[in-house]
Amino acid sequence: MIPVRETETGVVFHIRVVPRASRCETAGIQDAALKIRITAPPVEGKANEACIALLAALLGVKKARVKIIAGHASRMKTVAVEGMKAAEISARIAAL
Question: What range does the domain containing 87 cover?
Fold first, then answer.
């Protein structure tokens, strides 16, 4: 399981992004981060937008509640999800 940290507004956790994949999906856990495969290229923020859209769909929240707070130009990113608890995120990630 990946470490999920609670904040005042929600939770923070790490993701590892694989751009230019054949389809958008989760691909398990790697380096204490949720591994996400996306079809978008890492150009002009398209990969970041695709990450936010995929995470919002997987977690059942609106895209506006998901933010990349660190690692905008890196494969390893730190993501914040507003309005959720660590137990909720852990359960939803485990169900993937």
Answer: 5-95
